[in-house]
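To fix ideas, we give here one paired sequence and structure record:
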Amino acid sequence: MRKNRNLNEIRNVEIIPNYTNNSDGSALIKFGNTWVLCAANIEAGVPLFLKGKNSGWLTAEYSMLPGSTSTRSKREVTTGKQSGRSMEIQRLIGRSLRTALNFKAIGENTIKIDCDVLQADGGTRTCAITGGFVALYLCLKEKFKHKFNYESFFFHKVASISTGIINDEIFVDLDYEEDSSCDVDMNLVMSDQNKIIELQSSSEKGLHNIQQLNLMYENGLNAINQLFIMQKKIID
């Protein structure tokens, strides 16, 4: 049983927009003791398969800083390759944010979203997706300020949360200790139209049935709707 919050309660969430000066858009987002710096920058040009189509693109990169965990982790660049985990997470971030963006509105430009974990205590990918959308919004508002309006550039907002099952109870927004001991965990990515962008449900130490899956989804959706309210304070 949790000590400081209810099972369906998210951690204290804080989103600080325009956290850095040099990126086109940025946000520091905190899910409790998980802190992720999200930065968005726009560059001219698109991948070869989009050339001449007057359509843009978005890609994401994800990394955990060496001091983000209790034991210092090596920078992946020193090993000569990116870990499978990092590749999986940055692809998830990219897929999730691409669903929201009207690429015709940005022309043949590529947006790069960098998500760097400053401090990790579970839920880094869900934190990065939620903050990454804010950074993306701020980037486009800055770069296209003379013609920017939300409806022309975006189809919907994006946010994400984790849920899980521990001893047959549904938990929302798992910290590291909960995540490492859960029987089942799920990462849920949603639009603000209550539509699923991605749902990743995995059995870790036990199996789950459709009723439990539905409960995780319902609790996750309620939590994500709280995140949309927080995003709305920043996004016009």
